[in-house]
Amino acid sequence: MIKSKKEIVAMLLAGGRGSRLRELTINMAKPAIHFGGKYRLIDFTLSNCCNSGINTVGVLTQYNPLELNYYIGIGSDWHIHRPNGTVTILPPYAGLKGGRWYKGTANAIYENIDFVDRYEPEYVLILSGDHIYKMDYYSLLEYHKKKGSLVTIAATRVAWDQTNRFGIMNIDNNNKIYEFEEKAKNATSNLASMGVYIFNWKLLKKYLIEDDKNPNSSNDFGNDIIPKMLEDRLDIFAYEFKEYWRDVGTVESLWKANMDLLKENSKLNLYDNNWNIYSKLYNHPPHYVGETGKVNSSILSEGCIIHGEVQNSVLSPRVYIGKHSKVIDSVIMPNVIIKDNVILERVIVMEHVVVKSGTIIKNRNDKIFIVKDT
């Protein structure tokens, strides 16, 4: 086996089904979901890797991987596939033990120990492919080294009523973690794991092998690996991230993250030339706003044709909006046709949907309505 030594290798977990996104993930994995008009969720993590100078990335896929695999390809659109860098798709495979699904996040890395070992890294960076944020992973690595940490967990403050969705940690004055609980019911802190970890590879490999031998383990980082390391009194530190970060695990959080982009001083700046968010390039014509078209505080992607009114909405590529139609506070996925005399408010329209003339959906509830057919 040819080896190419790297200081750090990134392993991007992209196999989640995302069942709380309901109909949006019926035919594709959660990281492939469209976001912000021209992007998909996984674009942010891959772009972070590129901008951070991390050019060896394994992408672990599982649920409905076809669309995601095609989209990523060899990673050239994210400027990672270069002479000294690569993106490698790592689906579950049949080995000596037969074929099986990844049993958990830790098991997914365990099953790909050989892939990591071929680069002989000192560190491994574990990432999720379905979060919206911009982070310099190199700064995270420098922090890891400065602290003399064996494990570093990127963390952010979340609303107290959301703590049961995350791994919650308590830290001392030096940011050393002394307590970690996955999806705590009665949290004593609101400092949540972002699902971004740096491990010293030799140490992690040892724990992964031991974890695989434990029949009572769920083979998960938050439930098993991190608690066991804390039990063994290892030096584990939190890296508190204070910039924009969203876990878009629900339809409502996906909608809200899209709406965040429309704020005049959005905390997630997509127009920063020093930290580009890359995506797969398609050859679409420019968008067009007709004589009767009106657009206010919205994102229009390439190929859109607007003859109606768009207010505070995000339109993906090749969306058509007919005359006398109104789209308000909504997210429209690619290749949608909205015919004449339609009103849509606070909805997400799935891709390839044709919304019939005269359709009126004025959703005023906190629960966002998904339009899949009319």
Report what the structure shows:
The protein is α/β, with parallel strands linked by helices and 374 residues long. The chain is 19% helix and 28% strand. It has a seven-stranded mixed sheet. A five-stranded parallel sheet has the order 16-19-22-25-28, with no helix packed on it. It has a five-stranded parallel sheet with strand order 17-20-23-26-29, with no helix packed on it. Strand 6 and strand 7 (98-99) form a beta hairpin. The chain starts with 7 loop residues before the first strand and ends with a strand. The relative contact order is 0.13. It comes from Tepidibacter hydrothermalis. One of its GO terms (molecular function) is glucose-1-phosphate adenylyltransferase activity. Belongs to the bacterial/plant glucose-1-phosphate adenylyltransferase family. It holds the Pfam family Hexapep_GlmU.
Helix/strand layout:
Layout: E1 8-13, E2 34-35, E3 39-40, H1 42-51, E4 56-60, H2 66-72, E5 86-89, E6 94-95, E7 98-99, H3 105-110, H4 113-117, E8 123-128, E9 131-133, H5 137-147, E10 151-157, E11 167-171, E12 177-182, E13 191-200, H6 201-212, H7 221-231, E14 236-240, E15 245-247, H8 251-260, E16 288-289, E17 294-296, E18 299-300, E19 305-306, E20 309-311, E21 314-315, E22 320-321, E23 326-328, E24 331-332, E25 337-338, E26 343-345, E27 347-349, E28 354-355, E29 360-362, E30 369-371
Parallel strand pairs: 1-4, 1-8, 4-5, 10-14, 16-19, 17-20, 18-21, 19-22, 20-23, 21-24, 22-25, 23-26, 24-27, 25-28, 26-29, 27-30
Antiparallel strand pairs: 2-3, 6-7, 8-13, 9-15, 10-13, 11-12
